[in-house]
Specification:
It is a single chain. The protein is α+β, with helices and mostly antiparallel strands. It contains four helices and five strands; from the N terminus they run E-H-H-H-H-E-E-E-E. It has a five-stranded antiparallel sheet with strand order 1-3-4-5-2, covered by helices on one side.
Length: 147
């Protein structure tokens, strides 16, 4: 089990991968972000993107899944506090394979509740060519190591 004290500023972890297919892109977008360049092949081809692209929120969700599965899978996570600075840098297309880099920016023990603290993390998502497609930061609450 990993606790707050096991996370250090400057620690970088890389993990993934996850290949995205067109049916998944369209299904997610139909449910949550039904813009034409996400759900309609002909409209997407006529758009400035030149084809179907994943919703940015789909890319965030895929990143979150890899993050939870690979980084927060054996620790004392108590939940997320927030996400900031979301930037979609390059469209994700059918067939792209995504991977994630996770960098711990800061850890802080709570002054009012010393049995826990927060970890501030930068997430960067890359496609199979190494191009960065997404960045954002998250803050999570973790339990401190029991006395």
């Amino acid at each position: 089990m990993l606790y707050l004290e096991d996370f250090y500023s400057g620690t970088v972890t890389e993990f993934g991968s996850r290949t995205v297919d067109q049916d998944e892109i369209i299904a997610f977008a139909k449910a949550f972000d039904p813009q034409p360049f996400h759900v309609d092949i002909e409209a997407a081809e006529a758009s400035n993107f030149g084809g179907i692209i994943a919703s940015g929120w789909h890319t965030v969700s895929l990143t979150c899944r890899m993050f939870v599965d690979n980084f927060f899978n054996n620790n004392s996570l108590m939940g997320g506090i927030g996400a900031d600075e979301v930037r979609w840098l390059k469209p994700v297309r059918p067939g792209d394979t995504l991977s994630v880099r996770c960098s711990v920016l800061e850890t802080r023990r709570s002054k009012s509740k010393p049995d826990r603290g927060s970890v501030h993390i930068r997430l960067e998502t890359f496609d199979q060519t190494g191009d960065k497609v997404l960045t954002f930061t998250v803050t999570a609450m973790l339990r401190a190591r029991p006395a």
